[in-house]
Amino acid sequence: MEESKKKKWEELLEKIKKAHLEHKLDLSTDEDLSIGIMNLVSLEEHFFFTAEKTKNDGYFDLLEEVRNVRKELLAKLMPVNEGETWCISKHLLAATMRLIEVGTKLDSSKRREEAKQSYDSAFKLYSLFWALRLKLVDASNIKKAKEEGKPLDFESIMTELINCCEE
Fold first, then answer.
1. Cα–Cα distance between 24 and 16 in angstroms, integer?
2. Cα separations (Å) of 59 from 2, 51, 69?
3. Lowest mean pLDDT among 68-77, 90-99, 142-151, 155-164
4. Helices (H), 1-57
């Protein structure tokens, strides 16, 4: 990484760590909340399929209840939205959850290498969610980086900044 970009990255990390230390940014609680939201999206899907498979419309009522809770909680993570970042964040979390589940099933079927690929994809999407959540995503910079053939490294956001084990 060139020196000026490295310095900007380090400044960004310091800014986020400082906000975290000053309790302005509670990433461990937000991480728990994001995983709860993933599970709520998954419940919405299950209620939908159960309603369709059983032809019992009561499951649609349960789906609506879960959806309302999910919307309320997602608003805590994504209070200010640009464009379609609300829906993007929801779909990033949903895709993350599904890829984790695929990885788990592959792993239990002794298909470890395929499972690892699914887990890696899930982590990339989850990291992209956090880049969006923390407003680290700048579409013009992404386009420029892609044109220059530079990798986008959102995974370091997770490994550097978010520790779910803090109490």
1. 9
2. 54, 5, 15
3. 155-164
4. 3-21, 27-54
Q: Report which of 14, 19, 74 is spatially closest to residue 41, judged by C-alpha positions.
A: 74
Per-residue pLDDT at 89 exceeds 80: yes
Quick check: is 15 in a domain?
no
Q: Report yes or no: 70 and 44 within 8 Å, Cβ to Cβ.
A: yes
Instruction: Pick the more confident residue, 18 or 69.
Output: 69
Mean of the pLDDT values across residues 102-131?
A: 94
Where are any strands of DSSP class E within 33-129?
A: none
- Alpha-helical regions (H) of the chain: 3-21, 27-54, 58-77, 85-108, 112-133, 139-147, 155-161
How many separate domains does the chain show?
Answer: 1
Which structural domain range is residue 59 located in?
27-161
